[in-house]
Design goal:
alpha+beta, 3-methyladenine DNA Glycosylase, Chain A, 8-stranded antiparallel beta sheet, 4 helices, 8 strands, 13% helix, DNA-binding, Formyl_transferase-like_C_sf, EC 3.2.2.-, MPG_sf, MPG, hydrolase
Length: 209
DNA sequence: CATGCGATGTTCT
DNA sequence: GAACATCGCATGG
């Protein structure tokens, strides 16, 4: 991984609201085993003003309990009957907030990520982790990773990537993808012009037959 | 590029 | 029973 620092981000990094942590996470690296992804798109959920889009909005349940735990841990949830998505938990124990890891560039273990992502059709390199469910697959995240600590020398680490200063001017903010409530809040952050950022999709309500 | 729809199962009401 | 922090494929401009 070149001259990138391998030091995990300190837990204090996550001891802030997700809306502050999310843009600060852009350009940084999350690594799990052989695969590492440089984050290019994130979304914040929870706290400040109580966020109706957050899984934690209606209080603690079995599914969202990790969100109420200590900062710096992984919150993995299952959705749409087939996808896992990963968040990094923010704010101290008892207060729920998290950053959804929406997209990134695979900077290590491209071969492993490709093997996990490809079924029958080939996947363009920039699409390997372009979208939250795709990113989770590329990094090998599933149910069993829920609650894992990402600070320290565990199997999942969030590393310092390129200095946030270097991309500061390129960070954009806008409405969150696919959320029904609280879509106006501009808590989606991305690196402008980066090809690994996922396409924006508004929320669509649907009824099943 | 934008919009639309089906797939699939878990969680919470 | 409804809703869902998505994705892949299809169609239309």
């Amino acid at each position: 991984m070149g001259d990138r620092r391998l030091t995990p981000l300190p837990r204090e990094f996550f001891d802030r609201p997700a809306c502050e942590v999310a843009p600060d996470l852009l350009g940084r690296i999350i690594a799990h085993g052989p695969v590492a992804v440089r984050l290019t798109e994130t979304e914040a959920y929870g706290k400040p003003g109580e966020d109706p889009a957050s899984h934690s909005f209606r209080g603690r349940t079995h599914r969202n309990s990790v969100m109420f735990g200590p900062p710096g841990h992984l919150y993995i949830y299952f959705t749409y009957g087939m996808h896992f998505c990963a968040n990094l938990i923010c704010l101290p124990e008892g207060i729920a907030s998290g950053v959804l890891l929406r997209a990134g560039e695979v900077v290590s273990g491209v071969d492993v990520a490709r093997y996990r992502r490809e079924n029958d059709r080939p996947v363009p390199e920039r699409d390997l982790a372009r979208g939250p469910a795709r990113l989770a697959v590329a990094l090998g995240f599933a149910r069993e990773h829920n609650g894992l600590d990402c600070c320290g020398e565990g199997i999942v680490r969030v590393l310092e990537g390129e200095p946030a200063m270097a991309i500061k001017g390129a960070i954009k903010a806008g409405p969150r993808t696919g959320v029904a409530a609280g879509a106006e809040t501009p808590w989606r952050f991305w690196i402008d012009g980066d090809g690994t950022v996922s396409p924006y999709r508004p929320h669509v309500r649907r009824i099943r037959a």
